[in-house]
Amino acid sequence: MLGALAGDIIGSRFEHANIKTKEFDLFHPECVFTDDSVLSVALAESLLTGADYADVMRGYYQQYPHAGYGGYFHRWAQDPSMGPYNSFGNGSAMRTSPVGWYYDDFDDALAAAEKNAAVTHDHPEGVKGAQAVVAAIVLARQGRDKEDIRTDLQNRFGYDLQRRLDEIRPGYDFDVTCQGSVPEAIIAFLESADFEDAIRNAVSLGGDSDTISCIAGSIAEAFYGGIPALMAKEVFARLDRHLAEVTRCFRREVIEPKT
User: Fold this and answer.
1) Which of 62, 71, 167, 232 has the most CB within a 10 Å radius?
2) CA–CA gap between residue 33 and residue 239 (Å, rounded)
3) pLDDT tens by residue, 206-233
4) CB-based contacts of 120: which residues, under 8 Å, 6+ apart?
5) Which phi and psi (to 5°) does residue 89 adopt?
6) Rounded to an integer, what distance in angstroms lies between the CA atom of residue 69 and that of residue 23?
7) Which burial class, exposed, middle or buried, applies to 152 when counting CB atoms under 10 A from its CB (0-12, 13-18, 19+)?
């Protein structure tokens, strides 16, 4: 989960100022947490407490109303009577990493990914995007190698993960759909040498940089056994007290006993 927050924060300053290179300062005064981090932490709290995820998300929205949510999510969060809105945006995938840590059983994890995605993103592509990220995290936690992960995700979800970053990067543009950003984020992880390299790969693609980096970081954390201590320190320095406390609690109660 901390890998997702790191990716979000590092990628935040490039979301509307894309770069097509891996050469950049990881942490900068303009790096901030966005809705990706807020809703990931909200999901972590829901899993820890058993509280309804829709209620928790709406509560977090009230605390962080300017974190960069999409237009439909704004409407949903402000209207307690509104149900899911058939979205296939990548919001379902960006927030789902806690599920990949909370559940050890693969089928249970996929079911929970679907349940928590469908609170808002009940379109099949929205559900698939969240499930693909969770599947990658669980497979990484199980010690599967990258080729096994690639093959499993391709067969299970139909994503084309044979492409290379150098092929994707030149023509890749802003795309907030699951089908147009989740496979690219997974490829950024698959081509990485370590956690930091996964984030640099993701940012270098351009597009929805904070979310692609968030997704790539969530998988890379599971595969590489965590994130570097100095990067973790930088992440916590940019979270407010509440987000930091929930994140630490989730790590202490869920992640650390499993690593």
Assistant:
1) 232
2) 7
3) 999 999 999 999 999 999 999 999 999 9
4) 57, 72, 73, 76, 84, 85, 87, 91, 92, 126
5) -70, 160
6) 28
7) middle
Paired strand residues for 89: 177
| pLDDT tens, residue by residue, 147-174 | 999 999 999 999 999 999 999 999 999 9
Q: Which residue is it, tokens 């609690």?
A: 249
Q: Please check whether residue 49 is in contact with residue 253, taking contact to mean a CB–CB distance below 8 angstroms.
A: no
Which domains are assigned to the chain?
2-258 (1.10.4080.10)
Q: Is the dihedral of CA 174, 172, 187, 204 positive or negative?
A: negative
Task: Give the span between the Cα atoms of 91 and 98, in whole angstroms.
Answer: 14
Pairwise CA distance, residues 209 & 182, whole Å: 12
